[in-house]
Amino acid sequence: MNLVVLLLTKDATLSTPLLSAVSPPSTTTTSDSDESSSSADNSFRYDYHDLNFNTPPPPRPPPLPAAVFCSSYKSLAVLSGHVSSVSCLALCGEFILSASQGKDIIVWQQPDLRQFTKFGHGDGSVKSVVTAGNKVFTAHQDSRIRAWKVSRSSENVFKLIDTLPTKKDYLGKFMKQSNYVQTRRHHKLLWIEHADSISCLAVSNGLIYSGSWDKTLKVWRISDFKCLESIKAHDDAINGLAAINGIVYSASADGRIKAWGRRKTTDGGGDNKITHSLKGILQGHKDISINSVVVNQNGSLVYGGASDGYIMGWAADEGFESWKLVCEAKAHATAVLCVCLVGEFVCSGSADKSICVWRRDLIGGGLVRYMVVKGHEGPVKCLQASPERVGGGFMLYSGSLDKSIRVWWIPNHSKFHIWMSYWGWI
Ligand SMILES: *[C@@H]1O[C@H](CO)[C@@H](O)[C@H](O)[C@H]1NC(C)=O
Ligand SMILES: *[C@@H]1O[C@H](CO)[C@@H](O)[C@H](O)[C@H]1NC(C)=O
């Protein structure tokens, strides 16, 4: 235990994050008491500066328990301002957007993490926020999406520009009977309308995807906010979406993630039409809800967080035609509510109030527990990580049912994997 803890301590001290108005990260190194064992205490105490990877390695130390990678860790900042549970987070330039069950969306400015402005009060509890260029899309419990424009020149920085479905979309469709679908007995809606809360949004290649408790996945065009498609995607509520390279992944309470491929077809009139078709089913544990899904930058790895506390990972083949299970890790005592991905790190937030940081192994998509961060007093509902490197690590933002947002700095130890391979762990 000592060696790894030493590395954590040294590196954390050497590289203080660049945030100005907040205190440097704590260097507390207490390990998770429930898992730690005294056998971890061995005689291998190296000074960080003495590490020389060219000299023959010292004798192989005994294997260390997984708890070595966990250290109690303090958040850099706690942002409070929401009157209710924080439901979603998004990064938008130097802003952090957070939204809550209490309908408000707060804009925090970096690097001082001060409340910059608020917007969107009164449109129903906000379930998801995504950004695309200078636009922000929010999904609401009232089954509609709102589009906002970020403008630097005007006083009202986040300006509502439309509500989806748009009036124009309604007017073009409401006269025709075939545009209606039965949602409940004696209740019909246009196919462009969600019949229940929108739980998640994703943006990719000029399209917005919305997933809903009504089990449908809808596809919208960003250029004119027109609804292009509605897919009856799952047997139960859709909880999460991730989209990259023309493939969108939907995670559902039915225990599956489905991969939908985008296709351009030409209709009778010669118009280009975008449609999506099912490419694959990533099967989780039977009947266990998958609450969140993320995909890496080139689309080759997909991770889902499930209600039984597991993170499952799948690797796509080269043609994105099939997916193979590559990871099945018991991450938390209770449900995984959110997952985020930054570089080779996967972070999971749970109903058990903790956040676990995982590192992908070098081959394949397996995960190695890196550290556990605790501080929230309620379930961790949402996570975002900044892709920018800060002082030899990265920034992690978490939102919780305890109404607060916490800001963490996660050190990135480049030599970690050298030691791990030396110990024969990878
Ligand atoms: C995608 O990224 C993974 C790891 O991040 C890498 O192993 C894989 O070769 C990449 N695939 C492609 C097609 O670039
Ligand atoms: C962590 O460090 C390694 C080695 O310097 C680097 O390749 C990687 O991109 C870093 N990851 C993050 C998320 O900063």
Automatic annotation (TrEMBL):
What are the boundaries of the signal sequence?
Answer: 1-15
Coiled-coil intervals in this record?
A: none
Region: Disordered, residue numbers = 19-41
Alphabetically sorted, this entry's keywords are: Signal, WD repeat
Q: Tell me which PROSITE patterns the record gives.
A: WD_REPEATS_2, WD_REPEATS_REGION
User: According to the record, where are the WD repeats?
Assistant: 191-230, 373-408
Query: Which PANTHER family did the record assign?
Result: F-BOX AND WD40 DOMAIN PROTEIN, OS01G0946100 PROTEIN
What is the protein's name according to its record? Uncharacterized protein
The scientific name of the source species is Erythranthe guttata (Yellow monkey flower)
Q: What is the lineage of its organism?
A: Eukaryota, Viridiplantae, Streptophyta, Embryophyta, Tracheophyta
